[in-house]
Automatic annotation (TrEMBL):
<dbReference type="InterPro" id="IPR043502">
    <property type="entry name" value="DNA/RNA_pol_sf"/>
</dbReference>
<dbReference type="Pfam" id="PF00078">
    <property type="entry name" value="RVT_1"/>
</dbReference>
<keyword id="KW-0695">RNA-directed DNA polymerase</keyword>
<dbReference type="InterPro" id="IPR000477">
    <property type="entry name" value="RT_dom"/>
</dbReference>
<feature type="region of interest" description="Disordered">
    <location>
        <begin position="346"/>
        <end position="372"/>
    </location>
</feature>
<keyword id="KW-0548">Nucleotidyltransferase</keyword>
<feature type="domain" description="Reverse transcriptase">
    <location>
        <begin position="35"/>
        <end position="288"/>
    </location>
</feature>
<dbReference type="GO" id="GO:0003964">
    <property type="term" value="F:RNA-directed DNA polymerase activity"/>
</dbReference>
<protein>
    <submittedName>
        <fullName>Putative RNA-directed DNA polymerase from transposon X-element</fullName>
    </submittedName>
</protein>
<keyword id="KW-0808">Transferase</keyword>
Amino acid sequence: MRSPRKAPGSSQIRRDALIHFPDNLLQALTHLYNASLASGYFPSCFKTALVALIPKPHKDLTDPKSYRPISLLEFLSKIFERIINTQLRWYLEDHTLLSHKQFGFRSHHSTQDALNIITNYVHNNKDRRRKTVLVTKDVERAFDTVWHAGLKYKLCTKFNFPPLIKILLCNFLDDRKLKLKFLHHVSGTIRMHAGVPQGSTLSPTIITLYTNDLPDPTHTDSLTILYADDCTHLARHDALSGVVRRINDELDTVSRWEHRWRIKTNATKTKVLFLNPRKRPPYDNIYLNSFDRLQAPLQITHSCTILGLTFDTDFRNNASPCLLHSEGTRPLQCLTTTFELGSEGGRRWAGTAKQGSKGQGGAKRGKSEGSS
């Protein structure tokens, strides 16, 4: 079985326990999932997360921001989220609803694709002796600060989902709670008013939906690349002053969009890299936006890392691409769930998690502990 020692939620029910569930319990669980899908209801018992605080490397451990909050969710909730997420991603790709700028958490899109586009863009500019500037942006606490009201508005208006899907996704966000776990101490229940659980199967897709309407570049020959919440902007021009003006235009447009949707960029982690500038510093200042008069100019660096690949000012890669080879998300083999969701859209949402099912709605245990 894959990752049998994954940390469980508050109930302490682990992944390997599902293999030993009797058939009647698996059938009841299947009926529960079908009923939840039929009504657009995300069970409230799945909405409480035990949040473990994981220290970030080389950080001051007395600062609360030096910890990464990881949500430990109920395993039964993770199964339900995976069923929803699989069909949601299929629906988005089948209807071409995701932005062409987004390369994260998508089928047939990878870090290599994003890096190829960036390197080809810079190489073409170098061949034509054009100036290029690259800005890498870091969203501050992207998972923890998602504005629920704004996210619900986008889910209900921008993707043409069938009504039950809208209700289900909005219900996923409502009345979420957490308990903080630090060392051997667990806090009382805290209600979440923003953010999505970091560690949830569904959260990365929801983050992708929230940032899907990021504005296209202001200038037609500029470039924007998204990988989940990581954003890279590139601009080019024949003159150095022109490329600075263009990248400021791009950053200003995106900053106004971020301000509207309560997204905050971490300016201290945002880096500016001039590629093949043929002129050494100082360069003209580059700012995140034009409306904050008290902000400091962005940091200009001689190298930066994008999706695991490091670039320097002379456009030499100092490191090989960090390619992520996942083991592959094999389907869960203990459940079979099929439900027709959204008759208006005429789309079948089939949560397939099967191997050796009994009947149409039944479920069967895996044959061995290594069959997940």
